[in-house]
């Protein structure tokens, strides 16, 4: 209202100056006075408005301070608490009167007692703030965890005026986190570490073992007979048995060892060893304590354990592989009678790994058509005529070149690839016989058949189908050679298969005769057409009387059983002459020809036929 009156007066005065110019100078002082009154009034109004806003902010700050869910306290520049809010007392259980005038570090409820508070306060003074978790005791002695924040307030000169603290109780969060950690890392039934926690401890132990140069034993333990207890007494008492065995096993472990449960009745042990020799004694204690009686309800039961163990770093594998190796050893312990501990054989495992890798590479070689057939001529010692060839497998390796069969055939034993490659050789041999016949060349081609391939239930039917697919090839031009040095596990089935093949006209012979342990049994049971004397006896035929006697005996056996006898590994024509004198009918070897690709055979045959008339070797 005053501002309005001053404005009106000023307006009238200005009109009077305009209307009566002669009196203008008389009124200048009046206008100046009115203007000063107006400015002063505006300044008063602004000051009142600012004061009102400041009072509102203070009231709001006071309301927030009093009603905040967080505990708040204010310290003066000497570090004593000068104010706190109700939440402070609610969280800590400390009355306002017990806190005012005290330093925060003197309050156990804030968890930063004594020298522990000094670094927090120093950080707040240096950075302007500090924040972290603290653990303390409420007034009733109950522990709690607080999230505490400190902030300093400085005056315009930069000097610390106050320190403000704020905290909230996060005990329930920590309890919940601990429960989640327990559920994630410990077995609910036994309280032992689970697979996840065991893997973490194993990784740490492996790093420590490498650094400090000591050994670790990773043991996989499975209880013997636990299923019977579950079936007889029920799962509830079965669980009690697991708890009881866990208690027994825990008593033999040191602080640095770990016992974990993987599930069911399977456990794993991690033993920290000063040396690998300490493992046996530790495992003996484990087996003894696993077999201690356990009380379940009104019954007492006894169990035993089968344990597989692998030693690190002797078994220098990753954590998952170590556990798998121990598991494999445990299954062997089960198979060997249970209630025992077996170590994982690292060398055997490495050879098995090589076997798997080589088998995979050979499978790829078959898919990529890397195998080749070479053919070695078979000579009739009576007249020097070429009567047949033996199909010999080679591997045309992309990097290593042509590989002989001894470098890879051993990896095929007792595998499905052995059968697949055997079928490939039969198919390729029949195709080659077919091509030779188209060229006017009729040669018997022999193919080596492994006992596993021969004993397959579908071998005869598969061979019959192959022969039917090549109607231009007479069955008599195919000969099957069975390795006598390999084990034929079912002579009855083998004899039946051989009989069926011979009924179609296919010839069958025993290869490497004399090198195995069942030569006479095979000769007795298998209806074969021929015998092939192994080259180990033929090589020193003329210099070793024992070899000479053995070769003579095999020739006599073959003659007695009505079999054609072929000598392998004939290195010279003189050896061929001696074999002919002894009654051997046929020969193969470098003395006549090396194995060669099919496209080289025609040239070799022409050269062989151009030789002087047989017998070249003098008898």
Pick out its properties.
619 residues; alpha/beta; Beta-Lactamase; Alpha-Beta Plaits; 4 domains; eight-stranded mixed β-barrel; five-stranded antiparallel beta sheet; disordered N terminus
What does this structure look like?
This is EAL domain-containing protein. It comes from Leptothrix discophora. By secondary structure, the chain is α/β, with parallel strands linked by helices. The termini are far apart. Strand 14 (about 385-395) and strand 15 form a beta hairpin. Mean pLDDT is about 85; it is low at about 1-10 and about 15-20. The strands form four sheets. The protein has an eight-stranded mixed barrel, surrounded by six helices. Strands 2-1-5-4-3 form a five-stranded antiparallel beta sheet, sandwiched between helices. It has four domains: about 1-65; about 70-175, PAS domain (Beta-Lactamase), CATH 3.30.450; about 185-345, Alpha-Beta Plaits; about 370-600, EAL domain (TIM Barrel). Helices cover about 45% and strands about 20% of the residues.
The CATH class of the largest domain is identified as Alpha Beta
Number of helices: 21
Coarse morphology: elongated
CATH architecture call of the largest domain: Alpha-Beta Barrel
Q: Multimeric state of these chains?
A: single chain
Uncertain residue segments: 1-10, 16-20
Tell me the CATH superfamily of the largest domain: EAL domain
Describe the largest sheet.
Answer: 8 strands, mixed, barrel
Strand order of the largest sheet: 13-14-16-17-18-19-20-21
What is the rounded distance between the termini? 153 Å
Mean pLDDT: 85
Helix content: 40-55%
Helix-strand category:
alpha/beta
CATH topology of the largest domain: TIM Barrel
What's the domain count?
Answer: 4
